[in-house]
């Protein structure tokens, strides 16, 4: 059967979302807030039993309220920026620029170059000097100077611009990789030609135990002197390494930009021992193959389901208290948490609709209310044993099949939290077996996660999600 993706149609996207949500109770970021006008053209949440998450929203024209200096680039960037992974045509980017967003993060690989072409068409309506464009590409160890130059020239052509503000090395996973001779030789030439103004580096974190941590790599980049802008994972659940990078960047006057700002979703799989779901049937088959009796296996599955349901019930307390009725509430307040750090210059948010741009622009320049801080604190407790941290490889040494857990969970994040279904499924397919070995494994990773995640069930869930037909 042919796979359906966002690219097929909006309708297929909704069907896929409905399918994902039907697997159980879901919680992810966003709130439906009633709004009332006040003096000065701003609005406040209408009074209700639930305290408002957001204290203010901009006037009806919805403009960015806060700009920050992007390190030694000197450019004043909007605190909310546009992550262009989902941009394929000009209208959404043009709308973002019109709202005051002036930093855009793209890449040669986003939508196979369509993202950069969409930005090109939007730029025609704006003063180029008032927009900061950051694009990037994987620079492989074997790439020579001409290869790097060709990559940059390809981006310049697709963007339709005379220059790129920041050209980044994408996913640099070693400190040694920062010193790529061909990359730096190409950047020196392009800067002299006026085709690239600044350079940068990005890293999600390691995907194997022999790889270097995100903070080690990006702190080294901040201290190197040749990198002007960094893109790093930063959210209220994963920020200890990010805090180190931000401190090093501040000390060296390097620009900071945030990705993966929202920590994901929660859901509980419905369990009926007389009519097992596909996922629970996989769990049962796995346990039976491991030599467990059916009675014992079903008892364990019932206990697992009860624990998951109890967990979801705990999250419902604050979900109902704060009016979380959609997939955006936690995401929006998570973005707002990122904005509270003045040394994080901009939060790169993937957006694909006018409506969502309105919602993220509304966060610009706002401060967390006490209820929002309380919500995040409760969310932290609820998500602690559910969120697979980007760049964590604590379970890897326990896996006899070398399943790339962190990478697979990152692809699941692309699918669920960013709506990049086709991209996530393509990346997962390129892994080959992916999480397939988890179906027949004895589950040696069960006690390996430092955060208490049930890794094997999560791998089976991710496999099902990323191979939907």
Entry keywords:
12 strands, alpha/beta, 469 residues, disordered N terminus, 15 helices
Beta-strand fraction estimate: 5-15%
What general form does the structure show? globular
Write down the CATH topology of the largest domain. Answer: TIM Barrel
Compute the number of helices: 15
Structure characterization notes:
The chain has 15 helices and twelve strands. The chain has 469 residues and is α/β, with parallel strands linked by helices. The protein has two domains: 10-26 and 266-324 and 394-466, no CATH class; 67-264 and 327-366, NADP-dependent oxidoreductase domain (TIM Barrel, Alpha-Beta Barrel), CATH 3.20.20.100. The strands form three sheets. The chain has an eight-stranded parallel barrel with strand order 5-6-7-8-9-10-11-12, surrounded by five helices. The protein is globular and about 70 Å long. The relative contact order is 0.15. Mean pLDDT is 78; it is low at 1-52 and 54-60.
Summarize the structure.
The strands form 3 sheets. The protein has an 8-stranded parallel beta barrel, surrounded by 5 helices. Strands 1-2 form a two-stranded antiparallel sheet. A two-stranded antiparallel ribbon has the order 3-4. The chain is globular and about 70 Å long. It folds into 2 domains: 149 residues, no CATH class; 238 residues, NADP-dependent oxidoreductase domain (TIM Barrel), CATH 3.20.20.
């Amino acid at each position: 059967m042919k796979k359906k993706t966002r690219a097929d149609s909006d309708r297929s996207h909704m069907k896929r979302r409905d399918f994902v949500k039907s697997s159980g109770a879901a919680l992810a970021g966003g709130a439906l807030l009633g709004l009332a006008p006040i003096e000065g053209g701003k609005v406040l949440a209408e009074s209700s039993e639930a305290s408002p998450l957001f204290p203010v929203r901009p006037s009806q024209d919805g403009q960015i309220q806060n700009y920050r200096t992007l390190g030694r680039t000197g450019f004043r960037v909007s605190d909310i920026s546009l992550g262009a992974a989902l941009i394929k045509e000009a209208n959404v980017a043009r709308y973002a620029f019109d709202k005051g967003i002036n930093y855009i993060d793209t890449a040669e690989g986003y939508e196979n170059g369509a993202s950069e072409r969409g930005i090109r068409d939007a730029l025609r309506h704006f003063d180029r000097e008032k927009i900061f464009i950051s694009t990037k590409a994987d620079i492989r160890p074997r790439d020579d100077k001409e290869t790097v130059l060709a990559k940059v020239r390809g981006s310049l052509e697709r963007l339709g611009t005379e220059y790129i503000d920041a050209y980044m090395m994408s996913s640099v996973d070693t400190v040694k990789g920062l010193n790529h001779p061909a990359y730096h030789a190409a950047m020196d030439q392009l800067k002299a030609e006026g085709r690239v103004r600044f350079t940068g580096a990005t890293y999600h974190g390691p995907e194997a135990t022999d790889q270097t941590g995100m903070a080690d790599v990006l702190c080294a980049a901040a201290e190197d002197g040749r990198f002007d802008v960094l893109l790093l994972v930063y959210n209220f659940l994963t920020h200890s390494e990010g805090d180190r990078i931000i401190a090093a960047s501040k000390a060296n006057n390097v620009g900071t930009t945030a990705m993966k700002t929202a920590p994901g979703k929660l859901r509980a799989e419905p369990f009926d021992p007389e009519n097992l779901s596909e996922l629970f049937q996989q769990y049962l088959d796995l346990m039976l193959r491991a030599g467990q009796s059916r009675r014992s296996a079903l008892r364990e599955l019932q206990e697992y389901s009860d624990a998951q349901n109890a967990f979801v019930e705990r999250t419902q307390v604050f979900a109902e208290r704060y009016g979380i009725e959609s997939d955006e509430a936690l995401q929006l307040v998570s973005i707002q948490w990122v904005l509270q750090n003045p040394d994080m210059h901009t939060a790169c948010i993937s957006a694909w609709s006018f409506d969502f741009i309105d919602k993220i622009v509304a966060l610009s320049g706002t401060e967390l209310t006490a209820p929002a801080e309380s919500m995040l604190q409760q969310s932290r407790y609820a998500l602690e044993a559910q969120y697979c941290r980007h760049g964590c490889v604590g379970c890897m040494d326990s896996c006899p099949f070398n399943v790339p857990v962190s990478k697979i969970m990152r692809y699941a994040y692309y699918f669920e939290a960013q709506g990049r279904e086709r991209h996530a499924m393509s990346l997962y397919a390129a892994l080959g077996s992916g999480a397939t070995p988890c179906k027949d494994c004895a589950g040696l990773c069960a006690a390996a996660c430092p955060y208490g995640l049930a890794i094997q069930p999560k791998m089976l869930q991710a496999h099902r999600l990323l191979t939907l037909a």
